[in-house]
Amino acid sequence: MSSGRGPRRRRRPEEAERAILAAARAFLTERPFREMTIDGVMVRTGLSRPAFYAYFRDRYDLVTRLLEGIGGVLFAVDRRWLIGASDGLEEAREALAAALRGVSETFASYGPVLRAIADAASQDPQVEEVYRRGLIERLVGAVAARISRDVRAGLSPDDLDPEQTARALVLMTERYLLDAFGAPSSRSSEDERAVVAGALEKIWLRTLYGP
Amino acid sequence: MSSGRGPRRRRRPEEAERAILAAARAFLTERPFREMTIDGVMVRTGLSRPAFYAYFRDRYDLVTRLLEGIGGVLFAVDRRWLIGASDGLEEAREALAAALRGVSETFASYGPVLRAIADAASQDPQVEEVYRRGLIERLVGAVAARISRDVRAGLSPDDLDPEQTARALVLMTERYLLDAFGAPSSRSSEDERAVVAGALEKIWLRTLYGP
DNA sequence: GTGTCTACTGACATGATGTCAATAAAGACG
DNA sequence: CGTCTTTATTGACATCATGTCAGTAGACAC
Fold first, then answer.
1. A206: closest chain B residue by CA
2. B57 to each of A104, A113, B90, B134, how far by Cα in Å?
3. Is residue A104 assigned to a domain?
4. Are residues A79 and A43 part of one domain?
């Protein structure tokens, strides 16, 4: 055994931070968040464990930073349906289906990281705040707004409670996609993604726009 | 402060075990699982921390035992719809609605404990096994079977993938109800439960049996 | 070559966990 | 009642991840 910790090397702070984030991502594609120890991440960077604390407060802070960027993508792929006008039924159906395919792709790409965030959210109040309030609730709000518009426009049945329906559908999508793509070290095939996105599509479409 | 730990008292093993389970339940109605430390539970029983290990392996074993019984209830309230024959549409709709109301009631009663199990499942492989494989997956299987029957009977559209649809709907129900009733120290009103069960009903019914 | 700045680390303190040998209640038996 | 046996219970210990901090040693400036 000779990979002690290597000779002391000095990096730019920003470079070290990126190295830690990359090491964490790599770790999470192999093993679940519950096994992610700070030392386990730092050995992959060649830095010592205490160096971690120069860049992050704790491992919850670390996964929070991993979420940056991904959150934006999740909104971006839904954008067309979320902000679209309630013009026609066909257009709405098509935009929603595209949004769900986009979200599925995103989960397929970032699954293990998103899974880690979701796991961390149940263990740390700060992560819970960022993930639930800052991501899930914002999605719920946006979806609820779109549902409200569709109900008013007569595209969707008026016995729907927009807020509650939005919350149920968003939570379903989150958990179901984490279930499908969140496991570490599991790559997903083209078909798998199609099947998964298809199942979500049917439920969303039937609920909001009928058969 | 004089409630040191009290004079040494001896209980029947079974009695002590019940006391620990009760203390854990009490704890979880006040504070989340992430704050549940073994000592924090044991002070409520008047026993010392090491005594805990005579009855449970660790806190994950403890929450697993809290799940016993509740799991059965979750199947019992669904029973009529789950095992029912695919006779008529109205009967199916009514049975499904009743099942969802029953599940909502159960979550309203045992919310904090179920939330604790769900949280623990992301932190411990054993709990994950019991909760996901032993409860969620079994529900998914039963629901998928019912959906298959309904599709064959022509009650539900045949473009549904029974397995995937069942998984998405069950996960939705789980997370949405945990969201509504899982928070410690939050009692739920009659209306709240009605609103919540109503939102779920609409989604399940529209998806499986149309408008 | 000398000095300054600061990235980095070794060593320490803390807090929760799980174990074990030793202790002392409670009931059995005389 | 006294004594014995059983075993529920505990104090003390070992472990492990965490977070902190004073001190060390790269890198760049001059």
1. B207
2. 39, 30, 49, 19
3. yes
4. no
Nucleotides of D strand lying within 7 Å of any protein CB atom: 7-12, 17-21, 25-27
Q: In this model, does residue A7 exceed pLDDT 90?
A: no
CA distance A200 to A193: 11
- Do the Cβ atoms of B121 and B171 come closer than 8 Å? no
pLDDT digits (tens, 9 = 90+) for B124-167: 999 999 999 999 999 999 999 999 999 999 999 999 999 999 99
Q: Which H or E run includes B167?
A: helix B162-181
- Give the residue nearest to nucleotide D12 (CA to C1'): B50
Nucleotides of chain C in contact with protein CB (under 7 A) are 6-11, 16-20, 24-26
B69 lies in the same domain as B51: no
CATH number for position B190: 1.10.357.10
User: How far apart are alpha carbons A150 and A146 in whole angstroms?
Assistant: 6
The count of residues in chain A is 211
Tokens 């290597």 identify what position?
Answer: A6
Burial bucket for residue A146 (CB in 10 Å: 0-12, 13-18, 19+): buried
- pLDDT tens for each residue of A53-111: 999 999 999 999 999 989 999 999 999 999 999 989 999 999 999 999 999 999 999 99
Inter-chain touch B123–A172, beta carbons under 8 Å: no
Token pair of B124, please?
């411990």
Range of the domain at A196: 66-209
Q: Are A163 and A144 in contact (CB under 8 A)?
A: yes
Is the C-alpha dihedral spanning B190, B194, B195, B200 positive or negative? positive
Over 90: is that where the pLDDT of A2 sits? no
Nearest to B177 by CA among A203, A164, A163, A159: A164
Residues of B in contact with A197 (CB under 8 A): none
